[in-house]
């Protein structure tokens, strides 16, 4: 009887230790995710005719030039983040996307050059290399697109539907996506509507649609809610993604146009479970740089 009791005590002790070790390992595993200070920054660029200085001129600063400076600020924030860490913890990356890809192979080559990553074996010279690429190549991309003049538009809805999880989200990272666009969403290959009782969702947003939906008065929010206006949800759960939209540029004539555009985007992000998002106007880069840097630092 004593021997049996002794054996039972040993089994109980071993089981208890195993449970404790399992819990400790599980806690460690989760703490790695929570404490991760590695970031994955993506930039999605809308190369529609919004960047055309002939179609959409701005005497203060052309919109493509603003984009270029936004990208420089994003790169600055990224590099600041890397330098704030110990070398042994480097495991960060940044890349640029278009959707669809431009037909100009030169632009696609520039894009490949702008995909950069840092790890513990990264040399100090690599920092200068990244600075040089992001100081020169974005301007080359915009100049090539403007010279080509074949603005294929940007299929942002399809990007969120089919590509954002594969391209912009990595486990155990802070995933940050910057979208450079005027806020209007339209592409001929992804233009559809979903109507049901009390709901009218679209995959696109144009100034024509805003007028057709009577979103031209101060009561636009009530009209949106009453009729269920908005973007068709493109994904189910993007809670591991932070999104910053830069460059909202409403057409003139409707004083509420910009607010309507932002309402569409913000409601869309909420539906897709994106918790951390910002939608900013096409302001001067000097005004947006502090916002960009803060978004990347997380402070």
From TrEMBL:
It comes from the Bacteria. PROSITE patterns: PROKAR_LIPOPROTEIN. This is VWFA domain-containing protein.
